[in-house]
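S.,

Sequence below, as promised.
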Amino acid sequence: MLRSIELAALPSTLQLCLQSADRCAGLVLTNSGEAYVPRRFHVRELDAIHTAADVGALAKLGLVAPVGASFCAVRVTDDGIELLNTGRIEREATR
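The prediction came back faster than expected:
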């Protein structure tokens, strides 16, 4: 059974979070542990702040993954990059 995700179907907050993670080589957790900010500087992401809930939702969809053993930093997965580039992905459902 195939699972399909369309970029346009994601809430705008998730779309922006995924784009920010892609532009900035990932996102890092702030000291407060409540938000994620860009990992690297990008002029379009000067004020970008994303909630842990948004990052968690993208992780559940397999669009971002932790860098290392914890979620202190996340990176965009191959599926996330494909979704940004094509607007749609189809993958075999794992559960």
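The longest strand covers residues 2-6.

Coffee later?
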